[in-house]
Amino acid sequence: MDMLAAKRHLRKLIRDRLATLNSLEIQRQGRVIQEHVLASDVFQRSTRVSVYLSTDKEVPTSLILEELLKPGSQRKCFVPRVGHGDDQMHMLRVYSLDDLRSFPLVQVSSKHTIVEPTADYNGAPREEATEDEGLDLVIVPAFAFDADGNRLGKGKGFYDK
């Protein structure tokens, strides 16, 4: 079995296993993970953080987003915007919880919609992390990690570029 076939097989096994978890268990485990991230030294030191906008079957990121976007925070929060003509992922700034709540659902395939930022905020282009100071921390979605911390994603490769 080649590497791509092995990854497809592993993704199917993990998807099947995730399907057995109910939403309360996903939320419980997600809260533990988020609290661990929020308490970590690397998060505490970071001022420019990118975090994915979670879907139902991913580790939730709501607590992390709330911490990054709370009034008076000195941190800048960035979230992904994918595709839109260039097949690249852009990390665009989120300015507040109200801004985040205004993001539209975007159809990314025949089966999937995701929440994404608009390209503009209040009539001006959103700050893009790569055009300025970069990022201190990137929180990525994953199906799984191995013992060495290598990530198995969904297969599109956006976080690997």
Alpha-carbon distance between the two ends: 25 Å
Sheet with the most strands, sense and barrel status: 4 strands, mixed
Element order, helices and strands? HHHEHEEHEEEEEEE
Helix content: 25-40%
Which descriptor suits the 3D outline? globular
The radius of gyration is 16 Å
| Biggest sheet, spatial arrangement of strands | 3-2-1-8
Beta strands, count = 10
Q: Approximately how much beta-strand content do the residues carry?
A: 15-25%
The structure class reads alpha/beta
Low-confidence segments: none
Number of helices: 5
What is the averaged pLDDT score?
Answer: 84
Descriptive keywords:
161 residues; alpha/beta; two-stranded antiparallel sheet; 5 helices
Q: Can you characterise this structure?
A:
This protein has 161 residues and is α/β, with parallel strands linked by helices. Helices cover 32% and strands 22% of the residues. It is built from five helices and ten strands; from the N terminus they run H-H-H-E-H-E-E-H-E-E-E-E-E-E-E. It has helices at 3-18, 23-39, 41-45, 62-69, 97-101, and strands spanning 48-51, 76-83, 88-94, 105-107, 113-115, 120-121, 124-125, 137-139, 144-145, 151-152. Strands 3-2-1-8 form a four-stranded mixed β-sheet. A two-stranded antiparallel ribbon has the order 4-5. Helix 2 runs parallel beside helix 4. The two termini are 25 Å apart.
